[in-house]
Every structure is written in structure tokens, then in C-alpha cells.
Amino acid sequence: MSSLKGPILALVDLDDSLFQSLGKCRSTDSLTPAALDRKGEPLSFMEGSQRLLWDLLAKAVVVPVTARNLSSLRRVSLKFKAGAIVSFGGLIVRPDGAIDQQWRDEISPKALRARDFLAEAWALTKSLIKVHRLAARVKIISDDSLDFFLVVKTAPAKLRELNFLRDELTQAYPNLGRIFLNGHNLSLLPNYLGKAKAVQYFIQRLWEPDGDERLVLGLGDSLADREFLALCDYILTPSRGQLAKLWP
Ligand SMILES: [Mg+2]
What we know:
Elements: E1 8-12, E2 20-21, E3 32-36, E4 42-46, H1 48-56, E5 61-64, H2 70-73, E6 84-86, E7 91-93, H3 101-113, H4 115-131, E8 136-143, E9 146-154, H5 159-172, E10 177-182, E11 185-190, H6 195-206, E12 215-219, H7 226-229, E13 234-236
Parallel strand pairs: 1-5, 1-12, 12-13
Antiparallel strand pairs: 2-4, 3-4, 6-7, 8-9, 9-11, 10-11
The structure holds magnesium ion (MG).
Magnesium ion is lined by residues 13, 15-17, 221-222.
């Protein structure tokens, strides 16, 4: 557990914060592959500035806080030695790769209660896609046998379709979940799920700053990161990201 020790904790969102797909890179010069697709081909890349940021974080205990589930985190080539917060906070991985059982025990009854809601929302989205002939794909993201959230992906040019689906889902389930729309992704999260709660648990129970002087840095690009970033002492956000665009 020694890698959880250190006065600086850096909680980092991954996609669109530390790397992004090729189409989102500002230039094709000096890119470093950072994550693979299911076939093992490079899918996401770090720009030079992101690589330098990653190097800068070397002094810290670096923990990814990501919507990726475990299998998709394994396709990221950056090495994290202090565990991970995955599936929008649904699971916490300890530095040795084991799932934090205490957190899983807290989460699993909630995930089981939300299972029917997710299945229903999946079926509704699927039928909307079919009836309206939308160029979109929907799936439920699961991890360690628990269903956590729904994700809809569309081509970057089809954002109108995501807006339409967001409106339909909001109308169908006004109180059951939260919807985050960023780029060509839509995520529907049951109310209990979120990065911030898992971050809180991680800070209180797992991190060992070993002293009074401590610093928590947060990196994130999207509205779905806002709550966990608010728990950090300092917030880093890419200037081209969704959060930075809220600046006047
Ligand atoms: Mg992101």
C-alpha cells in the first residue's frame, strides 16, 4: 500500500483530460498513443502538453477518476500505481489491483435497486433509436457483475440526435437519474452514482498523506467532473473542454 502515501494526491479524469481520440487532437505532430481499442489498435493519444502534465504529476499519488470500467481502463497505457476510481465511482480499485470490498458493499445494494431502471431506460433508448432511425448506439456499462450506467454514442456530426434522446430520457425519468452530455456521448447515471462520493471515500479511507501538509489536485474536463473537482484544493481543466467553456 506504500504508493498511497504522499502529501500530494492528484485525482485525474482520463478521456479528454489526459488524452483524446485522434479527431480531437489539435495537431497530429508528436502524439503518444495512450489508450487502445478492443482490437488493440491505438485509439486515444496524448499531445505534448498532456505528456508534460503527466510528467509533472510524477511527484503525486495519481489516481484516475474515470467513467471507464475496469476492462476499458486496462486499455489505457499510462501506469497508475495507487489504484483507481472507475465506472463513474461505482468501483474503487486498490493499488494491488483488488477491488475495494468495503466500497463495493456500500454500492452493490444501490446498483441492484437501479438495475430495472437501467434496463428500462436501455429498452426505451433502443426503441427510440429504431423508430426514429437514429445513428446511435446504446449500452449499459457494467463492472464486476454490477450494472452502473447507460451510455449512448453517436457520430460527432449527429449531436441533434443526442439532444433528442436526452430530452426523451429526461421526460421519461425526471427523478431517477442524471444525464451528462459531452461531445458525442450521453451518459445516464442513477442518482446514487457519481465520481464525487467515491473520491470522498478515497480521500478519507485510502489516501495516507502522512502529515498535516497536504494538497489535492483535480483534473477534469466535463460537467460530470464538476462535483469531484469541487472536493479538491486546486482544479485543472483543459481550456478547450466543456467546463472551461462555461467561463464567460
Ligand atoms: Mg473527460
